[in-house]
Design a protein that fits this description.
The chain is α/β, with parallel strands linked by helices and 274 residues long. The protein has one domain: NAD(P)-binding Rossmann-like Domain (Rossmann fold, 3-Layer(aba) Sandwich). Helices cover 29% and strands 13% of the residues. A seven-stranded parallel β-sheet has the order 3-2-1-4-5-6-7, sandwiched between helices. α3 links the parallel β4 and β5.
């Protein structure tokens, strides 16, 4: 969820209008609906820095219903929030949550959970000599398997006749072609695997859900508990606040369509190479 390579001059890809919107006047969006997406959302991992900030930003922008999930079931204060309890390592808790939203599936589903340093203090491996199968399994359970199981149960209820977005926080360090440093073996591999799964889900779902969007998101280096041990000596301006990251990621997601499904985008809307 961080890679310490934030660009200082974002392209704002999501701000560029698509040419087809101007082909005929009938293709223009209903101005009464502009700015209302999403009307409902579900955030898995809403107690973390980025997840909580996205939930609060959604509510501030007028999202009517924001389902906020965590292991504790805690939630920000506000009429829009609908707290739920789930555990990434407990499929039954995820399935039960998905069933509760079946009749009114959210327009946006975001998996904002992830781990870089384990609870016992074990950080990313800088050499293959430090690989530990149990530690690797824990990282994959949270960064890869958990989001995949959320997709398994939430995508089953997504509508076939209109747009939805399913997104998971990924990382640029999960890019194979962009890896020029090595190290961070379990974290890199878990995010690379997540990106592959998102691509697979996009291909499969795209056959029946023509307007669906399934993507990974690279938030940049955000001032959260996850990145805190690695913030020393960061260049000025490279660290963003959770609120800044939330606003940028929501703007990126707002501008995506079905042609973008299966890809990974950074906070500036630029595609991250596979």
């Amino acid at each position: 969820m961080c890679d310490f390579t934030i660009s200082q001059s974002p392209s704002h890809r999501y701000a560029s209008p698509k040419p087809e919107l101007f082909a005929v006047s009938l293709a223009l969006p209903d101005m009464d609906e502009v700015g209302k997406w999403p009307r409902s959302a579900a955030i898995f991992g809403a107690s973390g820095g980025i997840g909580r900030a996205i939930a609060e930003t959604l509510a501030a922008r007028g999202c009517e219903i924001v389902h906020v999930g965590s292991r504790s079931g805690s939630a920000p204060e506000g009429a829009a929030f609908r707290p739920f309890t789930f555990d990434l390592t407990d499929e039954n808790s995820i399935a039960e949550t998905a069933r509760s939203m079946k009749n009114a599936p959210p327009e946006l589903v975001l998996v904002a959970s992830g781990v870089l340093t384990l609870s016992d203090g074990t950080g990313p491996e800088r050499t293959y000599k430090r690989l530990d199968p149990e530690k690797m399994a824990q990282v994959f359970a949270i960064n890869t398997i958990g989001p995949a199981i959320i997709a398994k149960h939430m995508l089953a209820f997504m509508p076939r006749d209109r747009r939805f977005v399913f997104a998971a926080l990924s990382a640029r360090v999960g890019s194979i072609s962009d890896n020029g440093l090595g190290g961070w073996h379990s974290y890199r591999a878990s995010k690379a695997a997540l990106n592959m799964l998102l691509r697979n889900f996009a291909l499969e779902t795209g056959r029946t859900h023509k307007q669906g969007v399934i993507v990974g998101l690279h938030p940049g280096t955000v001032d959260t508990q996850l990145s805190e041990p690695f913030q020393t000596n960061l260049p000025e301006g490279q660290l963003t606040t959770p609120d800044e990251a939330a606003a940028m990621l929501l703007d990126v997601m707002s501008g995506l369509d079905a042609d973008d499904s299966g890809k990974v985008f950074d906070f500036a809307g630029k595609e991250v190479p596979a």
